[in-house]
Structure formats: structure tokens, C-alpha cells
Design brief:
With about 80 residues, the chain is mostly helical. The protein is built from three helices and no strands.
Length: about 80
């Protein structure tokens, strides 16, 4: 386990896992919506991003979530 996660308990891990799953679900539903003619409303992405762009954004977003959570004191993570 990386040093930055040494003080984590099961609740911390579960909350991060839930946040990461929600992010994944958001990007997957965006992909499905785009196939049906929809558009992306996220101001950081183009209206019709490619799957490659969405995958990269998903990875960056998940990494940012994990990094932010790891930097917080335990009482602020929960």
C-alpha cells in the first residue's frame, strides 16, 4: 500500500471506491448519451468528445479524486 494511504480505514477506502465508481458511471453514461446524439455539458470537455478523450478525462478525474482524498486529514475524508 502506498504511504499516502497508510492511515486509511475501511470507511475511507469505501468512500473513495464509491466516488470512483460514480465517476466511472458518469463517463459511461456520457458515452451512451453521445451515441444517441446527446452532448457533453462539462465545461472542461468539448460538446462531442471522443471515447479517447472521455477515457483520459475519467482517468485524470479519478486520479485527482484519489490524490485529493489522500491529502485530507482523516476527519475531513469522512
Amino acid at each position: 500500500m502506498p504511504e499516502m494511504f497508510k492511515d486509511w480505514d475501511a470507511k475511507d477506502t469505501g468512500l473513495l471506491a464509491a466516488a470512483l465508481l460514480a465517476t466511472l458511471a458518469d463517463f459511461e453514461t456520457t458515452k451512451r448519451g453521445l451515441v444517441k446524439g446527446g452532448h457533453e455539458a462539462n465545461p472542461f470537455l468539448p460538446a462531442h468528445p471522443s471515447n479517447k478523450t472521455l477515457n483520459a478525462a475519467s482517468i485524470l478525474s479519478g486520479g485527482a479524486e484519489a490524490l485529493a482524498a489522500s491529502l485530507l486529514k482523516p476527519e475531513f475524508r469522512k
